[in-house]
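ok so for the tutorial part 2 we go from a plain amino acid sequence to predicted structure tokens. step 1 is just haveing the sequence, like this:
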Amino acid sequence: MKGLFFVAAMAMFFSGWSQTSRNEKTGLWTTSASWVGGIVPGTLASGTITATSKVVVVDGTIQTPYNVTFNLSNVTVNDGDTLVVLGNVNVTGSSVTNNGVLIVFGNFSNALSNSYVSGSGKLVVTGDYTNAFGANTLTGPSYVYGSTPGFFPPVGDESDLQTNDPALYNYTNNIYGVLPVELISFEAKVVNREVEISWATASEFNNQYFVVERSTNGVDFSELMKISGAGTSNEGRQYRVVDDYPTIGISYYRLTQVDYDRNLETFKVISVSFDEPAKLHAYPNPTADYVLVDVDPTNYDVSLRNSNGLMVSGNFSQQEFNGRLRLNLESLQSGVYVLQLVNHESLVRSQFRVIKQ
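step 2 — the prediction. this is what the tokens look like for a chain of 357 residues:
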């Protein structure tokens, strides 16, 4: 009786905030088009949707890749309808009535004494179901793949679901198979002595971020840049990053997508050729600390003279940087210097006027 009074009181108190999903439509929780009136119930922050003081009715199929917390809310999944949560569900001071299908690809927590989970529908939890103090009056078939501390009555596990309800079992497994990102293109091209890496997606699901990696041999990769994904979106997206200092010769690039649950998918490796320019130049110039020249330093003799024509030695160093020559000039006094490069094979000389600030 106490539970019935709680549910009734919740419905009366929060009736002004009732939000119902569109009748027999499939949509994402965080998409306004999924809900009557276009108002999404709850707020999304740090990968969790929090619905506080809401009356939420699922009257179709609603999916979300995020965790969901119901706080002081009344939630109902209608008969014949479905709610799919690809994260955890936390019920605090709320009533959840499942008369349809509720699938949770994470943990389900009903830990407070003023929380109630009931209904005649089907429940599938692929993680743990914790019921420390909350009340369960589920009369429909329930299946929990993990542990079930405090859950009563006893529930089935994954093998029971496969045996008793193969259709629901297959439906659940098919959701597991949803691709997080539908990639349309991934390419790299040389633009003004830089490499522009771009890609496009047709849709994204639970996508937290992308990682672009670079390699000089196509085997050993290091991170070049990380860029945020769109989370969940059915709209096309375009992305672009720039490699400011690509390797002289062939550069390999790899794209990896990472979910909010830290699962990842790595796409194909692409390559681009970045050759030595016909006319060399040193940059940045003027400079306070170093200059770069787009040549393989192993193919050149390097010398540096001051404004009086005297050879500079000991106060600068050279090194390879992404297949190009880098001269470290931090120790030099401010002034004008002449940098000379001589190619070992052709003996062609190239000179640059470098201003040290």
